[in-house]
């Protein structure tokens, strides 16, 4: 097992039992978060007519929702760090419901941006981050499988929500549909209620112990020095930006997301451009979603195997490279059958990348800092995710052909994969070297009590230090007794 | 186009003896555009006419293309020059006759390859499926309708007639025979709705082979699916026509089975507008359940009228509210059930609560396989011991 670059988990992750229920809850939350912005596009053609605007103005609703969902990551992380996953997800569900119900009463596009885009987006952000975090808290040994299963929510919900939205529209019109979708989003609260916190609420005892500790004068001085930065880090761990693995991951992902989503969005128009009819073009997307649905848990299983797990970063890089090569080869597809083959392979690539996307981050920073990490990652990824498709669209408009767009996206993704590969190779080497060094120093330091040098380390770790320390007091006492 | 290509398929083997049923009816004729067929070039008169009107909209719809000599009647030319400012449109239908079982009399059958073909013939059932073609006309134009009949029998004996609807047409048509193909062409200047309708050419005494041209005004697209709205809302109904420019649009609502014009006394409730000439929009405000029903939009052309319809459904706001409340109830139920279940299991655990924490710590110590971090807890333990 590679050493996770952060602190060890507070309590041993159950790796089963209630954990699988939590995976189911995360499945629902993640499903809604990723699928909902895409599924509402079903309504846009009709709404455009009713609100008397252009299609691009309406399409901004979806982009706003996605942007706010990503940008709301840090807020979500702060709240999760403070209150845990459960309350945040439930508040998220309520916000989504509020957003959609007020959207059903809106009279112009701007109101839709505010209600659907902003409020719903925040609500979805409050669903996504905590769901990912709690999977990391509940699993360690089987974490890749759990992640893969939880991420599979996205394609499943997308393929269910899209036709369901169509049905809702045909039965209730857009106003009624929005209201009912608001109700449906309340099910996120159900998912939230299932997300039982891992650690029991035995924090009162530990707080007292910490109080005792803090009265020590020499400690106090040192604490005051770090208090401002420490306070911020308590809520959102900005020290992650010094974390080597995190930086490699972040930079690689930013490059990758520039060229990642555009091929999905342009698949149907590309097919239509080749002369394929509307329904077959839509079917390509269904094929992709279907393969994606099964690829995610399977790849999670593969990533969990003894062979892959220690080298999961390499696996991630290879998955990204596979997707990039797929895009590069896409222009070779001339007829419908080859496009279907491309869709299958793309689904595989997309699924495998998505499946281990957050698993690799957890692997790099550890479960404790993961909630801050995912918040920071999503807010930075916000830019390429939003800029990617319009830029690709511009490329298509300039060159007049989809071929160049696919080649460009493929190239970008391959570059990202190479960067990740090299970066992680270096990171693994350095980590192995540090590990050896630490083992040597540990052996030499075991004989001395290192109060002074240890305390800053203890302080810098997030607010959970208190409870963490509290948990440690009991076994340490026991040990000294022995 | 696909329909045509599909139909070309069965043509290949042993086809001259099989009666083909071309049903190119579905395709709108306007979309065909200029065909790849060469215009009739053999006669100087013909050439003159086509070059004369070459700048106007010329429509040729040919399924099979062959050039044939013509003998033009003076009447025809007169009519053409009279309406020389109108566009010229040519439409062709091609039919091939097949020797049929019952016609063993001999005068219409040409058994080419002897017994083999006869066998083929007897195996196949004959159905005189009429060949139809739909032609969309928007403006007044000169229309040329051509039927081609291919048979291996005696062409001179074939009787050719034209009919409009049920009325037999006496003049304005030509008949010509070349080789084994019999041509007949009918020309009509369509200037009003009276000239619109179904024109058919008939070959044979018993009127066995027939080709039909349906002259229609462009179709209007309303909406196939009903529009769902709520009480107190406003809605925009739209009718659109693909490539046409109607002279005027009118809207009708349905009261019982009678169409009642809308917007005639101009009021606030109904507003008729349209961004482009090929579409019309009816905005209805302050909807109530009485406004439910089908609305018809009529497009008025020089050559007639065409209509489309939009269905409007007005629901009360209670309908989705009920569904919403049902879902909210379900969510509240599930959440309370889950939280109660959790409290119940926690209570069960509580008596052995302290012991559990104890165990957890121990497990943590043993379980910690995080390499470097093993050093961490040990240091802290030393530290707390030191205090």
TrEMBL record, chain A:
Record-stated family: Belongs to the major facilitator superfamily. Monocarboxylate porter (TC 2.A.1.13) family.
Lipid bilayer topology: Multi-pass membrane protein
Subunit field text: Homodimer. Interacts with GRID2IP. Interacts with EMB; interaction mediates SLC16A7 targeting to the plasma membrane. Interacts with isoform 2 of BSG.
Membrane-spanning residues: 17-36, 112-132, 144-164, 176-195, 246-268, 280-302, 314-333, 339-358, 370-392, 404-426
Main localization (coarse): membrane
Gene source species: Odocoileus virginianus
Record localization: Basolateral cell membrane; Cytoplasm
Recorded name of the encoding gene: SLC16A7
Protein name: Monocarboxylate transporter 2
TrEMBL record, chain B:
PROSITE patterns: IG_LIKE (PS50835)
GO cellular component, one term: axon
Keyword presence, Signal: yes
UniProt keyword terms in alphabetical order: Immunoglobulin domain, Membrane, Signal, Transmembrane, Transmembrane helix
Transmembrane segments: 321-341
InterPro entries membership: Ig-like_dom (IPR007110), Ig-like_dom_sf (IPR036179), Ig-like_fold (IPR013783), Ig_I-set (IPR013098), Ig_sub (IPR003599)
Keyword NADP: no
Segments of this protein annotated with the region Disordered: 347-387
Biased composition (Basic and acidic residues): 351-368
GO MF term set: cell-cell adhesion mediator activity
GO biological process, alphabetically ordered: axon guidance; dendrite self-avoidance; homophilic cell adhesion via plasma membrane adhesion molecules
Limits of the Ig-like domain: 130-201, 218-316
Signal peptide: 1-28
Protein's UniProt name: Embigin isoform X1
């Amino acid at each position: 097992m590679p050493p996770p670059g952060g602190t060890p988990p507070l309590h041993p992750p159950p790796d089963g039992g209630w954990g699988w229920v939590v995976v189911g809850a995360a499945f629902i939350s993640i499903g809604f978060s990723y699928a909902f912005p895409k599924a509402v596009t079903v309504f846009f053609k009709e709404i455009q007519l009713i609100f008397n605007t252009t299609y691009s103005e309406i399409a901004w609703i979806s982009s706003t929702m996605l942007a706010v969902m990503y940008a709301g990551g840090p807020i979500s992380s702060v709240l999760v760090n403070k209150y845990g996953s459960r309350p945040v997800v439930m508040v998220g569900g309520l916000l989504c419901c509020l957003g959609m119900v007020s959207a059903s009463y809106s009279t112009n596009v701007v109101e839709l941006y505010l209600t659907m885009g902003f409020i719903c987006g925040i609500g979805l952000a409050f669903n996504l981050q905590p769901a990912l975090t709690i999977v990391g808290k509940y699993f360690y040994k089987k974490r890749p499988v759990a992640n893969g299963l939880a991420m599979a929510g996205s394609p499943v919900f997308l393929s269910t929500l899209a036709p369901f939205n169509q049905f809702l529209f045909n039965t209730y019109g857009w106003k009624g549909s929005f209201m009912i979708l608001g109700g449906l989003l309340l099910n996120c609260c159900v998912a939230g209620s299932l997300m039982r916190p891992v650690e029991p609420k035995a924090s009162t005892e530990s707080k007292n112990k910490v109080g005792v500790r803090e009265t020590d004068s020499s400690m106090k001085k040192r604490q005051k020095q770090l208090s401002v930065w420490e306070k911020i880090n308590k809520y959102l761990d900005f020290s992650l930006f010094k974390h080597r693995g995190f930086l490699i991951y972040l930079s690689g992902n930013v490059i990758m997301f520039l060229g990642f989503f555009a091929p999905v969005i342009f698949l149907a128009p590309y097919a239509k451009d080749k002369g394929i009819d509307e329904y077959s073009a839509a079917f390509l997307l269904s094929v992709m979603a279907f393969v994606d649905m099964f690829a995610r848990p399977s790849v999670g299983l593969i990533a969990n195997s003894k062979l892959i797990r220690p080298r999961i970063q390499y696996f991630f890089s290879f998955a990204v490279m596979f997707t990039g090569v797929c895009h590069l080869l896409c222009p070779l597809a001339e007829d419908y059958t080859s496009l279907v083959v491309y869709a299958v392979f793309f689904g595989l690539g997309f699924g495998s990348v998505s499946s281990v996307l957050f698993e690799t981050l957890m692997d790099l920073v550890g479960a404790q800092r993961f909630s801050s990490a995912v918040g920071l990652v999503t807010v930075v990824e916000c830019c390429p995710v939003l800029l990617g498709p319009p830029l690709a669209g511009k490329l298509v408009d300039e060159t007049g052909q989809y071929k160049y767009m696919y080649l460009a996206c493929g190239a970008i993704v391959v570059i990202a994969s190479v960067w990740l590969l090299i970066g992680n190779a270096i990171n693994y080497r350095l980590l192995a070297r540090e590990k050896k060094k630490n083992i040597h120093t540990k052996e030499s330091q075991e004989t001395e009590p290192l109060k002074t040098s240890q305390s800053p380390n203890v302080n810098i770790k997030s607010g959970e230090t208190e409870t963490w320390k509290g948990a440690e007091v009991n076994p340490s006492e026991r040990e000294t007794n022995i | 186009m696909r329909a045509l290509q599909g139909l070309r398929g069965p043509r290949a083997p042993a086809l001259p003896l099989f009666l083909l049923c071309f049903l190119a009816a579905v395709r709108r004729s306007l979309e065909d555009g200029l065909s790849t067929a060469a215009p009739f070039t053999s006669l100087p008169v013909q050439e003159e006419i086509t070059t004369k009107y070459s700048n106007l909209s010329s429509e040729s719809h040919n399924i099979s293309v062959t050039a044939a000599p013509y003998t033009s009647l003076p009447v025809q030319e007169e009519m053409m020059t009279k309406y020389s400012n109108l566009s010229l449109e040519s439409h062709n239908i091609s039919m091939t006759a097949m020797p049929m079982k019952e016609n063993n009399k001999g005068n219409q059958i040409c058994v080419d390859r002897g017994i083999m073909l006869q066998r083929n013939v007897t195996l196949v059932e004959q159905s005189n499926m009429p060949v139809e073609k739909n032609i969309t006309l928007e403006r007044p134009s000169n229309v040329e309708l051509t039927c081609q009949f291919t048979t291996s029998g005696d062409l001179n004996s074939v009787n050719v007639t034209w009919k409009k609807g049920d009325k037999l047409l006496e003049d304005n048509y030509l008949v010509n025979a070349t080789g084994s193909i019999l041509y007949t062409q009918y020309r009509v200047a369509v200037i009003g709705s009276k000239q619109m309708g179904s024109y058919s050419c008939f070959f044979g005494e018993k009127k066995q082979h027939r080709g039909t041209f349906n002259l229609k005004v462009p179709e209007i697209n309303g909406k196939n699916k009903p529009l769902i709205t709520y009480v107190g809302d406003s809605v925009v109904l739209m009718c659109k026509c693909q490539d046409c420019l109607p002279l005027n649009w009118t809207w009708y609502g349905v009261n019982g089975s009678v169409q009642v014009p809308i917007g005639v006394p101009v009021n606030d409730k109904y507003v008729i507008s349209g961004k482009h000439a090929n579409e019309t929009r009816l905005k209805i405000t302050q909807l109530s359940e009485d406004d439910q029903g089908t609305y018809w939009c009529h497009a008025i052309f020089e050559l007639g009228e065409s209509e489309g319809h939009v269905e409007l459904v007005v629901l009360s706001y209670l309908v989705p509210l009920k569904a919403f409340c049902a879902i909210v109830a379900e969510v509240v139920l599930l959440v309370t059930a889950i939280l109660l279940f959790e409290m119940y299991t926690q209570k069960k655990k509580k008596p052995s609560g302290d012991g559990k924490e104890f165990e957890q710590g121990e497990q943590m110590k043993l379980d910690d396989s995080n390499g470097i971090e093993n050093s961490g807890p040990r240091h802290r333990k030393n530290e707390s011991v030191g205090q």
